[in-house]
Amino acid sequence: QSVLTQPPSVSGAPGQKVTISCTGSNSNIGTSYDVHWYQQLPGAAPKLLIYGNDNRPSGVPDRFSGSKSGASASLAVSDLQAEDEAAYYCQSYDSRLSGVAFGGGTKLTVL
Amino acid sequence: QITLKESGPTLVRPTQTLTLTCTFSGFSLSTSEVGVGWIRQPPGKALGWLALIYWDDDKRYSPSLKSRLTITKDTSKNQVVLTMTTMDPVDTATYYCARWAKLDSGSYSFDYWGQGTLVTVSS
To answer: Can you tell me the mean pLDDT for B100-106?
Structure first.
């Protein structure tokens, strides 16, 4: 079981908006630890998509946005495009692990 | 330009020890607030964190695998090595190394990843 909980799958039509949740606890997100999101396209290595809860690295479209509230975080993808079809992982630091925690991943399907 | 690349055996026999090397360029592990981590992904499954090593040689391990893992760095060669003992077929996975860096948000994340290397454990 992953320390951070994500829905296994979400889907949406092109142009729509979808949201992926990431639920943690008081040893990770619920404390002051930031949440980061990674996008993994089919057959590729993960890529940093959102860091520090709501920051986009250079080159990431502003269709991707992140937020954090309490012990949960969310990734929103607006104006869905076919190339957004991928797996998305949230990640935080966990004080009980004294290390990195990943979510179980969410497969985004563009209908 | 920051790049990382994993190298090591593609096939390991059960009970053997796996040694993987991450060779990187574009940054130095002597720079503060930088580290390198190892993450693995069994076929069709989620990412799983294995180990981290920081610029100051601080090391962290996944608690469930701590007894089997060792991470070391060679700053002069820009390399980080991960060893995992007593390999089992369930350890079959793609193994990634990634840079662990403190970005402008003030927290660490894996901002650059290697392409990964598939390690199969089978007799």
So the answer is: 90
Instruction: Write out chain B residues lying below 8 Å of A36, CB-based.
Output: 107, 109-110
Q: Which pLDDT band, with edges at 50, 70 and 90, does A105 fall under?
A: very high
* A43: Cβ contacts below 8 Å, ≥ 6 apart: none
Distance from C-alpha of A69 to C-alpha of A83, rounded to nearest angstrom: 28
- For residue A96, count other CB atoms closer than 10 A to its CB: 12
Contact B113 A45 (CB under 8 A): yes
For chain A, say whether B44 makes contact (Cβ under 8 Å): no
Name the residue among A52, A99, A105 with its Cβ closest to that of B105.
A52
Confidence of residue A1 (pLDDT cuts 50, 70, 90): confident
Across chain A, the runs of DSSP E, i.e. the strands, are 9-12, 18-23, 36-40, 47-50, 64-69, 72-77, 86-94, 99-102, 106-110
Q: Does B35 touch chain A (CB under 8 A)?
A: no
Compute the distance between CA of residue A96 and CA of residue B67 in angstroms, rounded to an integer. Answer: 17
Q: Measure A13 CA to nearest chain B CA, in Å.
A: 24
CA A99/CA A96 separation, integer angstroms:
8
Contacts of residue B9, Cβ cutoff 8 Å, sequence gap at least 6: B18, B19, B119
